[in-house]
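Database export, one record per block. Field names are fixed; values are copied verbatim from the stored entry.
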Amino acid sequence: MFYTPEAGHGLPHNPFNAIVSPRPIGWISTRGSDGTENLAPYSFFNAVAYVPPQVMFASTSMKDDRDGTKDSVGNIRDTGVFCVNIVEYAMRDVMNETSGDYGREVDEFEKAGVERAPCETIPCSRVAGAPANLECKLTQIVQLPGAANFAVFGEVTGIHIRDNCLNEDGHFDVSTYQPLARLGYRDYTRVTELFSLKRPGE
């Protein structure tokens, strides 16, 4: 089949998310200017540069109390910082609990029973015990076409790695925690098998 997004796909559900998959999940923790904290997962997330290390995530919906966006973006606008917490398969249920449409006064760390720890380089909490945490300083927020589409870019200023995720060769070994990834619809997957490829000329 072929379709244009303008004309519609004619299917029971939009296939776009399923086509662009699997997608890593950025579990974004933020703190508002009033001190309230927020924790929410975003599957439009990735690393975008090595030097300096930079990441991005996109928010695509809004809340009535957040001026056309969601709590994460609203908090980052106010404070200029955020933390990306890497999601392991074992934390799939608590991650999902934090995806609810809660009021801005709700602290998802408390709501889902997620243990928090302080960041080192930014005034924000992180998920304690996560495989890794990326402390980030906002570089820019880009408004994309669409009513509530914002891409948030940040420079990584501090990195936490859980000790048991480093193997004896000094590699960050994703097989130790099985990263959770988003597919389409309500589907997820996890990384359980690895293989390597050499680039041409190596």
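Remark 1: The mean pLDDT is 95.
Remark 2: The helical segments are 16-19, 71-79, 92-97, 108-112.
End of record.
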